[in-house]
Specification:
The chain has about 400 residues and is mainly alpha-helical. It contains 12 helices and 14 strands. α10 runs antiparallel to α11. Keywords: Signal. It comes from Mucilaginibacter conchicola.
């Protein structure tokens, strides 16, 4: 989930993207919001209409004839990134759930396109991070977070489709989990944990968090104990090594190369991932204490990662990082909706709703309906890039929120 240079076997360098933080972002420590919102937005918003507008922009500007999606509309219009494409599948699954059946055809065709990312030269498989727009040329590193998230995306697509497509989504989600188990990217360095990718630069919370989600949900669906055992293993490592009890939140990462340096910065989407991981883990093991843990993360997010002035989630706890990103900050809305689905406490919906509205003010181009990669909360300092993944995540959380428009 972040940018890096991949040197291909033909010695050609291309820019690829994983679902980690951008390498140009250098987070510091401290900072964050402390005061939660008191009231919902003054005016009601038609979130389903917003989701459809976002989808229309992606259709008209990012979608290709191969049913892949361009990375962005500017510098990487000829690149196609794995987690960008599956995020669009995730967005379409949410739109289907919200009642727009027309998204199913796009979702299923992009799922077919994803086969071009799969490593067919290795019996273990796994998704590469990048291909050409027509699905050729897959190469470079494979990422734990990309493959873990992809498995979760497919399990949601599995829930909203039927027939042969349904079986195919479940089979590929299992293949993603099986690649994680057999990839060799879990080892005893730092007492366990998955490396971020096959280059093994560091062990981040988010990579392990999405893996934990996938293992827990697959155990719930299949009853196969290997998935339960891996969910337990990942959870134990995360709680022992990445949970900061002082803040109630998870830290960013442990550096690679044997240095073992912990980075205590807190990111919104890392903790939204862990919140959802705890919910899924508790459901899988039938342990209600994990809902309480998820609620505690939610409360900590809303104490530390919330901007009280603009009523939206910050990118991270560096007080100098005043810009927000639709995908990474938008993930906080998904986390809050997941909590509401569990306990029906409407305070979570207030945070979820306000966060979308804050991103609409900060990042949305009112004319084109597109979202800028980064912007200040006031809509200042907008970066020129229109990234596909940001459109996908805004479509997704808008569609999810539409279910609760009248709450």
């Amino acid at each position: 989930m972040r940018r890096l240079i991949l040197v291909l076997c033909a010695a050609i360098s291309i820019l690829a993207v994983s679902c980690g933080k951008d390498k140009d972002i250098n987070p510091g420590t401290g900072g964050g919001g402390t005061k939660p919102p008191v009231d919902p937005p003054a005016t009601s918003t038609d979130y389903l209409a917003l989701a459809k507008e976002t989808r229309n922009f992606s259709n008209n500007n990012l979608l290709t004839s191969s049913f892949s999606y361009r990375a962005n509309t500017t510098t990487h219009a000829n690149n196609c990134y794995e987690w960008y494409n599956v995020s669009q599948i995730y967005a379409d699954a949410a739109l289907i759930t919200a009642g727009d059946a027309s998204a199913a055809a796009y979702m299923n065709r992009t799922f077919q396109f994803m086969e071009g990312f799969w490593d067919k030269s290795d019996a273990r498989g796994g998704y590469f991070a990048s291909v050409n727009l027509n699905g050729t040329g897959a190469a470079g590193d494979k990422f734990v977070d990309d493959n873990g998230l992809t498995g979760m995306v497919y399990l949601e697509a599995y829930e909203v489709t039927g027939g042969a497509d349904k079986a195919a989504y479940l089979a590929k989600a299992r293949a993603c989990a099986d690649w994680l188990i057999n990839s060799g990217l879990w080892d005893n360095t730092y007492g366990g944990g998955f490396w971020w990718n096959t280059s093994k630069p560091d062990k981040p919370t988010q990579s392990n968090g999405v893996a934990m989600q996938l293992f827990a949900k697959l155990y719930t669906l299949t009853g196969e104990t290997i998935y339960r055992d891996w969910a337990v293993k990942v959870n134990d490592w995360l709680r022992a090594n990445m949970f900061d009890s002082a803040s109630g939140l998870y830290i960013w990462k442990i550096d690679g190369g044997g240095a073992g340096t912990k980075h205590y910065e807190k990111f919104t989407y890392d903790n939204a991932i862990m919140l959802e991981a705890d919910i899924l883990f508790g459901e899988a093991l039938k342990d209600p204490s994990y809902l309480a843990k998820a609620q505690a993360i939610g409360n900590a997010m809303n104490a530390v990662l919330w901007n009280a002035q603009y009523k939206g989630y910050i990118f991270n706890t560096d007080p100098t990082q005043t810009r927000v990103n639709p995908a990474w900050c938008g993930w906080g809305t998904q986390g809050m909706i997941r909590l509401y689905e569990q306990d029906k406490n409407e305070k979570w919906l207030t945070y979820a709703r306000n966060n979308i509205d804050a991103l609409n003010k900060a990042n949305r181009n009112a004319d084109t309906k597109a979202y800028y990669y980064f912007a200040g909360f006031a809509g200042n300092d907008r970066s020129p890039e229109i990234e596909g993944v940001d459109q996908a995540w805004m479509q997704r959380i808008q569609a999810m929120m539409s279910k609760y428009d009248n709450k």
